[in-house]
Amino acid sequence: MKGKQRGGTSAQAVEPIARRVAEEQGLELVEVAFNREAQGRTLCLYIDKPGGVTLDDCERFHKAVQPLLETVDYDYLEVSSPGVDRPIQTRRDFEKNQGAQVEIRLFAPLDGAKVFQGALSAMDEETVTITLPDGAQKPFPRKAVALVKPVVVFEDEDE
Fold this sequence. Notes:
The chain has helices at residues 11-24, 55-65, 91-97; strands at 28-37, 40-48, 76-80, 101-110, 113-123, 127-131, 137-141, 145-150. The protein is of the alpha+beta class. It folds into 2 domains: 11-80, GMP Synthetase, Chain A, domain 3 (2-Layer Sandwich), CATH 3.30.300.70; 91-150, SH3 type barrels (Roll). The strands form 2 sheets. It has a 5-stranded antiparallel β-sheet, covered by helices on one side. The protein has a 3-stranded mixed β-sheet with strand order 1-2-3. A hairpin with a 2-residue loop joins strand 1 and strand 2. The longest helix is centred in the first third of the chain and has 14 residues, at 11-24.
């Protein structure tokens, strides 16, 4: 047990500590999550930076943040990139992905479909708007949107 007390240290308690370390290293703290697994409780810290994080970034961040988390209840500490296809949730996520191709998944069908693709053109508290391939703007009420994520396209090396 890394932490001093068994129980429920929350992500909200870890976030300011991890955010400070990330900022000191020129990184962005994207997410803090606790996962209960067979081997114990894993504290997952997801970091990012323009151009993506490297293994060295993750290792440096891990070494800097771990000593500051000695009172936190966890068995394993995992530091990782959030991945190229992580959901777009925050204003910062939107800013980084504005104009990019995204997939929007809805809770219920709209115009006969639950999944739409297009270029992310606007996002606020009430609405997410994409530009469809035909150039039309398609707004979606935020409360109807289950997920917005980047469309990942792998280019063929032969082309």
